Amino acid sequence: DVKVTQSSRYLVKRTGEKVFLECVQDMDHENMFWYRQDPGLGLRLIYFSYDVKMKEKGDIPEGYSVSREKKERFSLILESASTNQTSMYLCASKAGDTHMEQFFGPGTRLTVL
Amino acid sequence: QKEVEQDPGPLSVPEGAIVSLNCTYSNSAFQYFMWYRQYSRKGPELLMYTYSSGNKEDGRFTAQVDKSSKYISLFIRDSQPSDSATYLCAMSASAGNMLTFGGGTRLMVKP
Q1: Are A39 and B41 within 8 A, CB to CB?
Q2: How far, in Å, CA of B61 to CA of B37, rounded?
Q3: What are the tens digits of pLDDT across the range A57-100?
Q4: Do residues A56 and A65 touch, judged by C-beta distance below 8 A?
Q5: Nearest chain A CA: its distance from B78 CA (Å)
Q6: Under a CB-based contact definition with an 8 Å cutoff, are residues B28 and B52 in contact?
Q7: Which of A37, A56, A98, A109 to mutate to test the interface with B (most CBs of B within 10 A)?
Q8: Interval B15-43: pLDDT, tens
């Protein structure tokens, strides 16, 4: 079974703090993704990575950065958290460009006060 | 206008009912269509996946794509309380492209 784990289920941070969200997958997948999920808006892609040290902007990259130093780990960084970044953050991975299925982690509910 | 539209619900049905969940989309380039199921406090998991137009059946679930109308459906027969979840449609122009998700429909099946 593919397993995608995220470092925290719930996180509460203050405005202006630097926030790190970690994601690890155990299936040697090439591609990894970070989404945020908000009511009525579905999943919106923040960033994705198709290889170690490679990253591409998604639909809503502003205010975020990412890091992929190892194949199994993909980190999302909020350089200076703001209240409008309060959301559910979902990490996903998939085997490669010819594969369709993305496997999701359980999500991190981030609240920025 | 969003690229993929989905009624947010909630949709409440009695156990045993036939459920119809739908999405409309505007991008005629979409070729791959998926349905993800998301239980409360969990990540989405792939339920069904179809390519281009037509129907696909898997047990109690049937996915239907009508590209001429830009409309996709998921039917659930003999719905069970365990089917209570949020159902997200997702679509893509090719296997290498990013997925575009609908907003999700929350389904509640009452015993």
Answers
A1: no
A2: 12
A3: 999 999 999 999 999 999 999 999 999 999 999 999 999 878 88
A4: no
A5: 26
A6: no
A7: A37
A8: 999 999 999 999 999 999 999 999 998 99
